[in-house]
């Protein structure tokens, strides 16, 4: 197998929800998985945007969607979609996990970033 810089296909995801949102009793819209370390963070539409914050702070530039049925990668540094290998399972949060997830407030739609 050829290694891809910035991707470690052997690292499992850190959990089934955004690490920081869960720790703060927060919520997320969609989830992204760091392709280098497995960190699960919330997407840029989510209030806290933890996935892109993780990329900026760690230097880990490539994420993969952690949504069921999605298999795309995104490269933050290049601001474009990216081709990547299969990652260690699971490939997404559980199908029965609600979207949005976490401690979702009333009127959550108005709190999304567009």
From TrEMBL:
Annotated region described as Disordered, given as residue ranges: 85-114
Signal peptide: none
Pfam families: zf-UBP
Domain UBP-type stretches: 2-98
Coiled-coil segments on the chain, per record: none
InterPro entries recorded: Znf_RING/FYVE/PHD, Znf_UBP
SUPFAM superfamilies tied to this protein: RING/U-box
GO molecular-function terms, A-Z: zinc ion binding
UniProt-recorded name of the protein: Ubiquitin-hydrolase Zn-finger-containing protein
Annotated source species: Kribbella rubisoli
Classification lineage: Bacteria, Bacillati, Actinomycetota, Actinomycetes, Propionibacteriales
């Amino acid at each position: 197998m050829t290694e891809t810089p910035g991707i470690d296909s052997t690292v499992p995801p850190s959990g089934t929800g955004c690490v920081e949102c869960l720790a703060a009793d927060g919520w997320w819209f969609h989830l992204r998985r760091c392709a280098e370390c497995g960190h699960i963070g919330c997407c840029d539409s989510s209030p806290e945007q933890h996935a892109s914050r993780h990329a900026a702070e760690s230097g880990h530039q490539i994420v993969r969607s952690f949504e069921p049925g999605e298999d795309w990668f995104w490269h933050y540094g290049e601001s474009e979609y990216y081709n990547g290998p299969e990652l260690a399972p699971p490939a997404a949060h559980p199908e029965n996990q609600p979207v949005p997830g976490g401690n979702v407030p009333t009127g959550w739609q108005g709190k999304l970033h567009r």
